[in-house]
Amino acid sequence: MLYRESGQFKTSYPADQAIFTIKQDRWFFALLMLAAFVGIPLVATDYLYTALIIPFLCMALAALGLNILTGYCGQVSLGTGAFMGVGAVAAWNLAFRVPELNLLVVLVLAGLVAAAVGVIFGLPSLRIKGFYLAVATLAAQFFLPWLFTKVGWFTNHNSSGVITVPRMTLFGWEINTPMEKYLFALGVVTILALAAKNLVRSNPGRRWMAIRDMDIAAEIIGIRPIVAKLSAFAVSSFFIGIAGALYLFVYLGSAEPDGFNINLSFQALFMIIIGGLGSILGSFLGAFFILLVPIFLTRVPPLIGLDMSTAAIAHTEVMVFGALIVFFLIVEPHGLARLWQIAKEKLRIWPFPY
Amino acid sequence: MAFFLEVLIGGLMAGVMYSLVALGFVLIFKASGVFNFAQGAMVLFAALFFVGFIELGLSVWLALPLTVLVMVALAWAVERLVLRHLVNQEGIILFMATIGVSYFLDGFGQSIWGSNVRQLDIGLPTDPIFLMDGDILIQAFDLWAALVAGSLLVALVLFQRTSVGRALRAVADDHQAAQSVGIPLNTIWIIVWSIAGLVALVAGVMWGSKLGVQPAIVSLALKALPVLILGGFTSIPGAIIGGLIIGAGEKLAEIYIGPFFGGGIENWFAYVLALGFLLIRPQGLFGERIIERV
Amino acid sequence: MTATAKKLGDVMLRVENISLSFGGVKALTDISFDIREHEILAIIGPNGAGKSSMLNCINGFYHPQQGSITFRGQTRSRMKPHEAASQGIARTFQNIALFKGMSTLDNIMSGRMLKMHSGIIASAFYKGPAEREQIAHRAFCEKIIDFLEIEAIRKIPVGRLPYGLQKRVELGRALAAEPTLLLLDEPMAGMNLEEKQDMCRFILDVNDEFGTTICLIEHDMGVVMDISDRVVVLDYGRKIGDGPPDEVKHNQEVIDAYLGVQH
Amino acid sequence: MRTRVRTSHQGGGVLGNQGQITPGFRPVSETGHGTDSQAGVDQAGVDSAGRDTIPKYLLHNALHRRDRPAMREKDLGIWQSWNWGEVAGQVRHMASGLAQAGLRRGDKVAIIGDNRPMLYWSLAAIQALGAVPVPIYQESVAEEVQYVVDHAEARFAIAENQEQVDKLLGMRERLPRLDLIIYTDPRGLRHYHQPGLRDMAGILADGRQHAETHPDFLETEIAKGQGGDLALICYTSGTTGRPKGVMLSHDNVVRSANMAIAFDRINENDEILAYLPLAWVGDNFISYAEATIAGFCVNCPESGETVLTDLREIGPTYFFAPPRIFENLLTTVMIRMEDASAIKRGLFKYFIALARRVGRPILEGKPVGLADRLLYGLGEVLVYGPLKNVLGMNRLRLAYTAGEAIGPDIFDFFRALGINLKQLYGQTECTVYLCMHTDDDVLPDTVGKPAPGVEVRIDDKTGEVMFRSPGVFVGYYKNPEATDEAKTPDGWVHSGDAGVFADNGHLRIIDRAKDVGRLNNGALFAPKYIENKLKFFPQIKEAVAFGDARDFVACFVNIDLGAVGSWAERNGIAYTSYADLAARPEVYDMVRGCIETVNRDLASDSSMADSQIKRFLVLHKELDADDGELTRTRKVRRRIIADRYAEIIEALYSDRKSIAVDAKITFEDGRTGSFKANLAVADAQSFATPAPTTLRKAG
User: Fold this and answer.
1) ∠ CA(D482), CA(D485), CA(D489), 5° rounding?
2) How far apart, in whole angstroms, are the C-alpha atoms of residue A147 and residue A257?
3) Secondary structure tally for chain B: helices H, strands E
């Protein structure tokens, strides 16, 4: 309905392959960015930042990473939490031991470390598929946090095993207030999301999807499974690692390594299932949705005059998650992203039904 | 030496527990190709209801059939609300669905019965038994557990011989064949999930009375996964043997290797063991080799 | 433009005494034949004659227990499919093996993977070398799209396409690799007459315009006789005929095999 | 694959050469030369700057619009584009190449193929050399092609692809004068080694070399051309007999084009989609002459199937289509809306109703209440805008329909949406147009007033439309008799159409003059007028009325498979084939409904009251151009139908209730078979003429 595509023809391949080929979409995205970088800082409260927006950014990035592996390359992983942990611990150690290191460099290096670890735990994917792999990734999920707690070096032999983030500066910019942290995270996430989009629309993406859709055919057109799968693990873990680092640096502030546990893994998995497997946008929608549910559950019942014990809330939350997953898998296996897409299509061909 | 044996036997006994959970996985996977991640949750679920009924003052012999009913109802519900709608989906989707189910059961069970640890005593002897003139100590309870597991296994094997059992195996091979057996697919699934439910109940009771009924059981149940990798997803004996290996393996590792790492390695050792094993024999100890066709 | 209008080159691929079996079940027994440059070779035979298995051996998906396959002078053992691909062997499948989640264009682009080299980093930045590469190859793939007359479905996910078109897209994906040897597994299975005629035209055009050597499995005898230069007949994993179409047509053993006479 | 000669580097050639001719040349500002090219066009469309041939305008564009888009083609997934500089470069090379190949002043060159840039450029290249292009309909069968090529004495033929080349080669021995066949798309022609067959790429290569050594060859050749020279020979697929070659001079084309451009303020910012046959004078006029003179951009679709998609992508500002295309668009719109959700359908119905009420007044700048204006604005957002967007018409500022009468409510529908759809009347012999609607004076059932510089009168005896204008053709090629028949000594031309002037000065065409007959009771009988009224129903695709020298009017009907088919599905009527559906009693009832509505309408006009249809039948097969029953432009060929269906026609005038026919059908795969069908002949009710007070007011 809002689209006026007629006359927006493409005279070159770059234009035809752009991320947003329709003018109206470009406007919409521009507005979105404006709202994110300017609008939110104007209105958001500290509570909103710490309770929703910042964790949203971190988890969205993690989900994005997982989506690359699971949604695009078809390799199920239950190790997200652990890889976030790797990123977090690596980043903390870098920042703590080499204070003069630029914050961005720290993040990138942390991501690379996570990527390396990811590749190691991705090795089994060359021999095994599906559930077998899912189980294999659990090994990482249980082994890594244990490693960080057991080997004192990772936490600088801190008795409590808690790592606390040193104060952050970026090119002299002090990142203290929630808003500053938000802007920093937003910047990082935006750049990485763009990178992810670029990856999935060029060679690596096609390689991954080929493996996902039909690995045999993929091999027969010359795609080497080892390259495809391990690169997926590496890239995925890179994103997840940085997500973990952000999670610690801008959200938690201080944490115990075994806080990066299996629940985090499941959360990320739920995010991409509900958000949409194989969709960048979906990772964000899913993250937003999943993080909204608990807030919803804690806020709404009082409003409608029934008070639930925190335990009850916790249990309902778990139930709701479970139910939602099943619901989405049955009703819309491609998640919110597909719903969004459908809505968009409807608008494009409005008033026609098809 | 004696100490080694004691550890070994202790480990094997613990392994029996894993096997019990793994059995549930295998049954369902064989019959419906569904990797039921919720098996662990089902164990807790069953245990919670069982202990819950007892706390309501019911006798064990009343609580037991009631819980069985609950588990059958659960199987029915799962088929009705989940499986039926995902029939033609790829395994991985079903797998994720069962993760959802797992969460749901977890939350549901606890919101009914609460999440605090409950003691469960079904009157199994807990006094220690000494072998080799006292050098080796074994918990009688563990023996009983082994006994129960064994008999359960026998029961299952016998069941396999019944017409229903054969039908189930037919389903495992291909769903069309199942139709020819005359039992509708949905019914078969309900049956399988019910049986898995029973197995879960047994496991739940055993574990409940060993460590008390508590949410931690779920994560313990996750230990069944490496067992499956070892034993193969489709083999009942595999599940048993795998369980024993894992159980013994991680106990021994904890005692003999653990110290070098500062202990606590049993919560990952099983996985790493399985992982290493995967690289050598992807299809597991007893799983069949898959020939891919183009 | 007819298949006879061109001269056949020398041997490109030599299959010698291939035997293949799965767990005791013999799929192929002592098969030998040649494929010559620029020819269209048809492998025919009743169902279960081992035709597909033969192709799977050639492009390295199966590894025969005995015998050797020599491609362009180099004999190989236990070669992987992607190695075969990088040597210039492309193929299509009996039951379509497209990447359902991707558009027609992306499927064809993916067929070009071997020719594209920009890595993770470059791709992540996209602008610059990666984009330039994408565009260069896009242009090539568009030529294939134009060649196969599938402009109208360029951006449609292949999962949504009718069967006949999917077959065409799969051919396009194979062509994108600019193969020297093209293996087609029942390219016309389940097509209506019009679609078959188109497919024949495309196969002949490919063979003619790009000089691609083609080895195809086909059931439709009419088609086989029309387009192939040479026919190899398999039955129960054995080779029972090898020669020009009309010669094979009159081979008694072949006729029996097709009439299902026991032997 | 089609060879593409992108000329970003060669395009510079023009500037290079121009550089020598006009030192200190600077590109003129866009706004500046928009008017400049129109500079000093007098009432007769004569250009004061002395540009009297189209190639001269091309050079002008190469100089003053060098970097503006001239042509686009959807190929290899994107809109390949050429600016005027590049086009001129192409033409330069092609002209040189053709000259090298031996093309001489006055030679005829046949051109056959789809709307491809290369073919449009060849028009310019050929004219630049003073030779005469003879475009041929691309669907013509080999015999038709052979006739035209032979009759035009073409020495060269430019064919798009293998299909066309095969037609020519097949007829080669019957084309002694044809020296050279040039193809633009080499696909499949690799093994063609016949003598006198060349690839355009080769011609262009030669041309490029030649152009380097003779930089101003093109300019000098073009300079030799004069307005009096022959610009074009268009063979009209006449409704009877062999096609006639209409000779048009550069003066004809340039003047007509200049006046049309002034009339509708067409300018270089316009965009069109060139999808109508190149051989049709209208496309040649708009996509070549007007485009070159006004300097706007011509877009060529990817292929026949993708026209609608391409239309949507380009979103032209200037659009020309025969009524049937607007009909089809409206039909598909309605059919697609059938399946829309109730809310959408409601919205659609409401706002379309509103538009039909206030849309045209708003478009024509007549006073409309504020409330309605606001509602219409809302409708623009919710319905009209999106609808136009999906149809590719949201940038449309000027649309014409011609060739046939258009259904009033189809016409109104598009105007109601705010699309400036107008009617035009003309023919090849007058270089496309005689009458056109002005933006503010548009009526659905007229073709508007005579255009500037055009004189039109009605022959009071025959009622035939006569005209005189700068566009009047030179004559029929090699057919002086026909020329004399058509042209009176004092320069008036017989249009062959019967028409009447309405009180408001608008011309209304009722039929072909020769087809207007009389019933036995002496009443006027204009079959086309009746047939059109029938064809205005979406369910009816074609109709043929009979009545000349008969007691009453009867007709054949062809149902529209698309519309009636979906109607049948919605009403649960199963059918296997066209013939089967056509024979259904339900369909007969529906058709009778339409006919009786028409009868009522006819009855309301005393002059037509006697033309009410008494008997009809639904034909078992679709009338088809390939069977010679229709012209390529889908005009009914009465004579052919009259004798091919004589038996059936008699049945209409007998009292038989049905007639057996032996029908030939062609299957998908090209095989043909025949089947016996039994056609029912049905009666329709007719009505009495009401009191004269309710006579339809003219217009």
Assistant:
1) 120
2) 9
3) 13, 2
The structure's pTM equals 0.85
Q: Could you tell me the CATH number of the domain that includes residue A136?
A: 1.10.3470
Which A positions 98-127 lie with beta carbon below 8 A of chain D?
A: none
Residues in chain D with pLDDT values less than 70: 1-40, 238-240, 604-607, 664-671, 690-699
Phi, psi of D607 (to 5 degrees): -65, -20
A302-347 pLDDT, tens digit each: 888 777 788 888 889 999 999 999 999 999 988 999 999 999 999 9
Q: Are D361 and A323 in contact (CB under 8 A)?
A: no
A130-150 vs A262-275: helix crossing angle, rounded to 10: 140
Burial state string for D329-363 with b = 16 or more CB within 10 A and e = fewer than 16? bbbebebebeebeeebeebbeebbebbeebbbbbb
* Contact assignment for C61 to B294 by CB distance below 8 Å: yes
- Identify any residues that bridge with C16 across adjacent strands, giving them in sequence order: C68
Overall number of domains in chain D: 3
Which chain A residues are Cβ-neighbours of B268 within 8 angstroms? 139, 142-143, 146
Say if CB A234 and CB A247 are below 8 A apart: no
Q: Is C157 in contact with C100 (CB distance < 8 Å)?
A: yes
CATH of the domain at D76: 3.40.50.12780
Counting Cα atoms < 13 Å in the Cβ hemisphere of D540 gives 27
The predicted structure's pLDDT at residue C259: 61
Residue B266 domain-assigned (yes or no): yes
What pairing do the DSSP bridges indicate for beta strands D69-75 and D297-300? parallel
Question: In 3D, which of C165, C123, A235 has the Cα closest to residue D305?
Answer: C165
Closest CA to D157 of D103, D106, D208: D103
Helices assigned H by DSSP within B162-257: 163-173, 175-181, 185-211, 216-221, 224-231, 236-256
Q: Are A287 and A273 in contact (CB under 8 A)?
A: no
Count of H-run helices and E-run strands, chain C:
10, 10
CA–CA separation, D611 vs B135, rounded Å?
A: 121
Which of D127, D209, D112, D130 is closest to D167 using CA atoms?
D112
pLDDT digits (tens, 9 = 90+) for D346-370: 999 999 999 999 999 999 888 899 9
Range of the domain at D298: 8-314
Which chain A residues have any C-beta within 8 angstroms of a chain C C-beta?
A: 13-14, 17, 195, 198-199, 201-207, 209-210, 212-214, 216-225, 231, 234-235, 278
How many domains, chain B? 1
- Domain span holding position B260: 2-280
Is B44 within a domain?
yes
Quote the number of domains for chain A: 1
- For residue D253, being part of any structural domain is answered with yes
Return the CATH number at B265. 1.10.3470
Residue among C22, C52, C94 whose CB faces B291 most closely? C22
Residues of chain A with C-beta less than 8 angstroms from the C-beta of D72: 9, 11
Concatenate the DSSP letters of all residues of D45-89 into one string: --BTT---SHHHHHHHHHHHSTTSEEEEEEETTEEEEEEHHHHHH
C231 forms bridges with which residues in the sheet?
C42, C243
- Comparing CA positions, the residue from A353, A147, A163, A318 lying closest to residue A249 is A163
What gap in Å lies between CA D289 and CA D250, rounded to an integer? 10
Tokens of residue A92, six digits? 């903390």
* Dist CA B156 CA B20 (whole Å): 12
Q: Tell me whether residue A166 is in a domain.
A: yes
Asked if residue B155 is part of any domain, the answer here is: yes
The answer to whether the complex's ipTM is over 0.85 is no
Between the CA atoms of D523, D528, D530 and D531, what dihedral angle is there, to the nearest 10 degrees?
150
Residue A65 belongs to what domain range?
A: 53-349
